[in-house]
Amino acid sequence: MLAWIAVIAPHGWSAVGVAESLFSGMGSRLLWVIVAAFLAGALNAVAGGGSFLSFPALLGVGLGPIQANATNTVALWPGQLTSIAGYWVEVKKHPKLAIKMGIAGLLGGSLGAVVLLNTPAKTFMFLVPWLLLFAALIFALSGPVMKRLQRRKGLPAVDPRRERARQSGQLILVLATIVICFYIGYFGAGAGFLIISLLSVFGFEDLNEMNAMKVVSTTMANGIACILFAVSGKVEWRFCLAAMVTCAIGGYSSARIAQRANPRVLRAMVVVIGLGMAAYFFWRNHS
């Protein structure tokens, strides 16, 4: 804080002076992060996949790969936290399972974050294009699966035999969720769809309930990862705070667009962006 005061004070406390101080201290790099975070928030609101923009942007301003991933995770997490409130009614329908999914998120997310923090930067940079490619393919597959799940809405009540199978398979479901949440703590893009697919395999048919369980587990996984990243000192806070605010603004301002836009076009756009970013980092690693 004293450092900020020292920079701002010579320019006076006017809005112009503050703005000049900010840009003289951080230059165009901060502006680039702000623009990318705004677009990432908008993309998350309309289709998901905002990390395809925000993570490469943080790499582009000079952050190391692990530092960029940690900063990106913390910047995007508040938007995930508020999602729990939106699905609270569905969460209360399965309180015991929600607790188990939350614990699975904490365990998997913490393990993934610890492994990331102990991964050499060069190794993680080698993995980045593969992780982006994996996430893009997840988004590509999610369209047909989500369409099928949407068609289940309004169907008759779940078969009692399937309901019993769902109850008996909860231990396996929780263990599988830990594995997915490990990926969330390590990188995370596209993992929400993996959890929805997993819940579908284990007998869930209501998409809102699946989204609720997904939100609980992913929020806990990213939350514990955020704490570990912050404690480790890997978060670049000047970029993180700017991205956090502008990402939220981008998401809020794009809410109406999300309601009107063609979801198939939006999903295709996310996949193209993801594949493009993966191709760029494959080229960058081999150039």
TrEMBL record:
Main location: membrane
Bilayer-spanning residue ranges: 30-53, 97-117, 123-143, 171-200, 212-232, 265-283
Subcellular location(s) per record: Cell membrane
InterPro entries membership: TM_pro_TauE-like (IPR002781), TSUP (IPR052017)
Entry keyword Lyase: no
Membrane topology per record: Multi-pass membrane protein
Keyword ATP-binding attached: no
Pfam families the UniProt entry points to: TauE (PF01925)
Family designation: Belongs to the 4-toluene sulfonate uptake permease (TSUP) (TC 2.A.102) family.
Protein name, per record: Probable membrane transporter protein
UniProt source species: Acidicapsa dinghuensis
